[in-house]
Design a protein that fits this description.
This protein is mainly β and about 550 residues long. Helix content is about 5%, strand content about 55%. The protein has 3 helices and 28 strands. The strands form 2 sheets. The chain has a 25-stranded antiparallel beta sheet that branches. Strands 1-13-12 form a 3-stranded antiparallel beta sheet, with no helix packed on it. The two termini are about 20 Å apart.
Length: about 550
């Protein structure tokens, strides 16, 4: 697989991008070696797009790269109507389905009893070595409960003319030029019940210019688990909810020691796999746990036209399996919102406070929000309020506001605007940051085969409570043009600009990226890609320029 210098342990798999929401090419941990066009590359697809998933059953995509070809050639899935061993013994496998099903996508297990008619307990999880998205009739090799699939085979070559300094003293600063690969993707499955499979994908890649073999085992996922207890009560007109929710997300990788690393690098990019899969947020020794206890109550008022409500929550955060590095967040909200049909722009009044240090300091926020539809094609949301701090924290008085507009001008034109200043909360850490932001984008369909998307955005973020992120300003803009000259040919051109100014470091940067690529489907399972990319980074740390060219082909099975 194609990887990047500077993103240690990254294995690239493609995702379907949303053209209406193009993203900037860098994040806090991606100051160099980031490849923003991977999400646009239809060749770098993962094992979810194998033929055994059928048409459109992939959990990560609506359809595979060869769907139109499959339909055109009448290659549909075959079903045997006679019940198999697992279907004939459903009573035996039903407990396995319920127990393991919570770790598959889109499934959860909820318990309710007659003794507590308004109470429920839910278990949900995610561990993607367990899956329901598999059709055994299409497996290449079947041996009882074991199945084997060849997912794809491919080859490619890249060339980099890199001028600059690569990050890291262990990298050869003159190692640009050519890199090539030949790869095959496989998957093995063990059937655990009539609908649940243990699935392990692997990627074997040969690097001819280095004469090395690299191997990676695993599905590149971080297991997660959720427990939630709900107790609902109705006291007169009051609707009351008490809940306790525990959420865990782990960086544990059970296949981390099964890799055979190998890399062929050209400039900032490489084919193959590095020996380290960890990053700043996920590693085998790190985890994020959150436990939240909360109480909410609300009731209708004034002939059911308004609703008054309140809520209070306490959250505990941990960032390791030993449950140390403990943080807390306390939250309270009072609100009055309109639920009738007379006022055209439904108002909502709210007061809330949040504390990240056990009530030693409080951040208070008062806000009025209005939302509604101006016309059939024009939706908007507006809010304004005031924020201030009390307690041990430095005195802060801020005007908070936000305005969002989404306008569909014609069937071919849509634009949107989002601006504001407010406070953002971290889901897995006791962290609150003030941010001022603005974004405008437009999506224009010129013809049925030609589309243009453009955006411009700005954000100013204050330093985080734990100083993990510095204060910084960021500006970005970009344009993406897509042209489909033929049914199975896509030409894409893009230009992106990203500027970052940080107050506590010298790592300010300005970055330009230009890219042109052609994706071609040669047959119903054979696709090809060719691209050229130029990138220029102006920075105090590791500035560079790079011309980058690549060709690749992949055959799906």
């Amino acid at each position: 697989m194609l990887g990047l210098v500077g993103l240690v342990g990254t294995v690239v798999t493609a995702q379907h991008s949303v053209a209406a929401e193009p993203g900037l090419p860098a994040t806090e941990t991606q100051t160099v070696g980031y490849f923003p066009t991977i999400a646009e590359d239809t060749l770098l697809r993962g094992p979810a797009d194998s033929r055994s998933l059928g048409i459109g059953l992939s959990p990560d995509s609506v359809e595979g790269p060869d769907t139109r070809g499959l339909v055109a050639t009448d290659l549909f899935r075959y079903y045997d109507n006679n019940p198999d061993f697992y279907q004939r013994n459903q009573d035996f496998f039903r407990p396995i389905n319920k127990g393991l099903g919570v770790f598959t996508g889109h499934d959860a297990f909820t318990v309710e009893t007659d003794r507590l008619q308004r109470a429920s307990f839910t278990v949900d999880g995610n561990f993607n070595i367990l899956t329901r998205e598999f059709n055994p009739e299409l497996a290449h090799i079947k041996a009882g409960p074991l199945y084997f699939d060849v997912l794809f085979a491919g080859a490619g070559v890249i060339f980099s003319d890199f001028n600059g300094e690569l990050p890291g003293t262990d990298l050869d600063q003159n190692d640009d030029g050519w890199a090539a690969f030949v790869e095959v993707g496989v998957r093995g499955l063990l059937r655990l019940s009539d609908s649940i499979y243990l699935s392990v994908a692997a990627n074997l890649i040969y690097l001819p210019m280095e004469n090395e073999l690299a191997f990676r085992l695993g599905n590149s996922a971080n297991p997660g688990l959720l427990f939630r207890f709900n107790l609902n009560e109705q006291l007169g007109e009051w609707e009351i909810l008490f809940f306790d929710e525990f959420l865990g997300r782990s960086g544990l990788d059970v296949f981390v020691d099964a890799d055979s690393p190998g890399v062929d690098r050209a400039g900032r990019y490489y084919f193959g796999f590095l020996s380290d899969r960890s990053n700043d947020f996920y590693s085998s020794n790190q985890a994020f746990f959150v436990n939240t206890v909360g109480f909410r109550a609300s009731r209708p008022l004034f002939d059911n036209q308004w609703r008054f409500g309140s809520g209070i929550e306490h959250s505990d955060y941990w960032t390791s399996f030993s449950f140390d590095d403990h943080g807390t967040r306390d939250f309270l909200e009072l609100f009055m919102q309109y639920e009738g049909s007379t006022i055209p722009f439904a108002p909502r009044f709210s007061y809330q406070y949040v504390s990240n240090d056990g009530y030693r300091s409080l951040l208070h926020q008062l806000e009025l929000q209005l939302t509604g539809r101006l016309t059939e094609n024009l939706n908007w949301l507006g809010a304004a309020g005031y924020a201030f701090r009390t307690g041990d924290a430095p005195e802060t008085n801020d005007f908070i506001w936000r305005f969002e507009l989404d306008h569909t001008i014609t069937r071919s034109t849509r634009h949107y605007l989002a601006v504001g200043q407010g406070y953002q909360y971290n889901e897995f850490q006791a962290d609150t940051r003030r941010s001022t932001y603005g974004r405008y984008g437009i999506d224009q369909r010129i013809t049925s085969r030609f589309n243009i998307d453009a955006f411009v955005q700005y954000a100013e973020n204050e330093t985080s409570v734990n100083n993990r992120f510095p204060i910084r300003d960021r500006f970005g803009a970009g344009m993406i043009m897509t042209y489909l000259p033929l049914d199975f040919t896509a030409i894409r051109a893009m230009a992106l600009y990203d500027q970052v100014d940080q107050s506590t470091t010298t790592d300010d940067s300005a970055r330009w990226l230009y890219r042109v690529e052609v994706n071609q489907q040669f047959s119903h399972r054979l696709t090809g890609n060719v691209f050229y990319q130029y990138e220029e980074m102006n920075s105090d740390v590791n500035p560079f320029t790079e011309h980058f060219f690549g060709v690749s082909m992949r055959r799906y099975f």
